[in-house]
Amino acid sequence: MSAVRQSTSSSTGAMKVLATLLVVFVAGIATAKKSYHGHRLVSVKAADKQQFDVLDRMLRTAQPWLDFWSLPVINKTSVIRVPPGSYDLFMKRMGLANIGVTLKENDVEDYLQRSRMPVNGPHAETSPFIGWTGGITTHTAYKRYQEIVNLLTGMRNSFPSLVKEVDVLNTRTYEGRSISYIRLGTGGDKPVIFIEGLIHAREWIVGGSLMYFMDRLLSRYGLDAEATFLLDTYDIYVVPVTNPDGYEYSHTSQRLWRKNRSVPRNGCRGVDLNRNFDAFWGTLGVSTNCNSDIYCGPSVFSEAEAQGIRDKVSEINAGGQRLHAYLAVHSYSQLVLTPYSYDYVKPDNFVEVEAAAAEMTNALRLPFNTDYRWGHGPTTLYPVSGASDDWGMLGGGARYTFTYELRPKEANFEISPTNIIPNGYEFWLSVVALGCNMNGISATCNF
Ligand code: 0X9
Ligand code: ZN
Q1: Residue pLDDT, tens place only, 158-197
Q2: Which residues have C-beta within 8 Å of that of residue 445, sequence separation ≥ 6?
Q3: How far is C-alpha 349 from the chain's CA centre?
Q4: How far apart are CA 379 and CA 24, in angstroms?
Q5: Pairing between strand 192-197 and 163-168?
Q6: Does the Cβ of 200 fall within 6 Å of ligand 1?
Q7: Nearest 5°: phi and psi at 184?
Q8: CA 266 to centroid of ligand 1, rounded, Å
């Protein structure tokens, strides 16, 4: 009896060890960071509608077998990451469709690592043009979500008279996070500039540039004419990380993750939040396949993050007059995109909006001669329905709306953090230019 009991308990013990090992192993798999060794980066160009359709069909169904870094457009190059297991089939399909493939990088992991290296020269943080070294934090590394949230609180503590609110949107992400925002201004309800960042997880330079922007705005108020003008004239709302689940996942697990982390259906993960807004939702430039990186979600505003932005913007603009500008900040390509994007159409006030975009682009180019362009969204990039910038105007009531694509120019989401300060400075100058060039603002800019 006792022998039996003993053997039972020892086999239970063995099972426990096995179970523990299994848990450790599975947890190891779940937390291991994905490597992109052996993945290739290629560029392709569709010469006509037929070739475009081949690429477009792949885009709509392909994730995680193909990762489009830039979407297909007739006669423009599109950059695609091709994992090793998909390469032969991909090449065969391209061959059948007669689409030429240029190999850009043999090993995406190496490419990402190289791209993280510090850059020197006129674009680097030591540039004399920037003229400001103070601030409540450093801007030399990409910060995690919690650090960013803590810094918003730090800003309120350091500048209580300039930070009106640090709070969270009225929502919770799939993984249970709250989405923090900050309201900067000198008091009273002024015209609003609303800035949404990092709706796409992998575009890390956006968070860095927005932190620099906020730090500069607060630290230089009363010292520089630009900061003083902006805070005296506007209420500036910033949501630096609109997609915290995706952003954290891009740090811990998959550097190149784009969407949020919700589970719209069994077996697939994530909705493209920049396709989930109520702006002709589910029409052009989206996929209804939830494996796709441009999946628009099961229904309009299905996602907590998009709902949170919608509700805050609607609350701000309840009287219909306060929201002057809605800025959606992305990377890469070095562009300022004007509305609308859901189709090849423009808003009634496009003349003013385009004049402001031209001024913003001049400002972005000014300090380092960085090659920024501006243009109408659908023709400059591609048509996109359900994007937040269009909703900002159509639903949110903004008079001006823009999508920024920050640095770099060439296909990459990984750029050295030495770009944060110069790119942040470019962004800063462009918001000053926007602030000085919107109709209905009486202040004049003498700087
Ligand atoms: O496709 C997107 O959502 C944006 N590009 S990104 O490479 N950052 O993903 C562009 C959106 C452009 N559309 C609008 N102007 N709405
Ligand atoms: Zn983006």
Answers
A1: 999 999 999 999 999 999 999 999 999 999 999 999 999 9
A2: 229, 432, 435, 436
A3: 26
A4: 50
A5: unpaired
A6: yes
A7: -110, 135
A8: 27
Strand pairing class (40-45; 101-105): antiparallel
CB 435 within 8 A of CB 193: yes
CB distance 389 to ligand 1 below 6 Å: yes
* Residue 439, SS3 per DSSP: coil
* Cβ within 8 Å of residue 147, ≥6 positions away: none
377 CB less than 6 Å from ligand 1? yes
Token pair recorded at residue 102: 């240029």
Residue 275 gets which letter from DSSP? G
Q: What is the DSSP string of 329-377?
A: EEESS-EEEESP-SSS---TTHHHHHHHHHHHHHHHHTTT----EEEEH
Rounded to two decimals, what is the model's pTM?
0.92
| Atom of ligand 1 lying closest to residue 337 CA | 15
For the segment 94-122, the average pLDDT, to the nearest whole number, is: 92
Residue whose CA is closest, atom 5 of ligand 1? 330
CA 198-360-222 angle, 5° bins:
85
Q: Which ligand is nearest to the CA of 246?
A: 2
Ligand 1 proximity of 388 Cβ (cutoff 6 Å): no
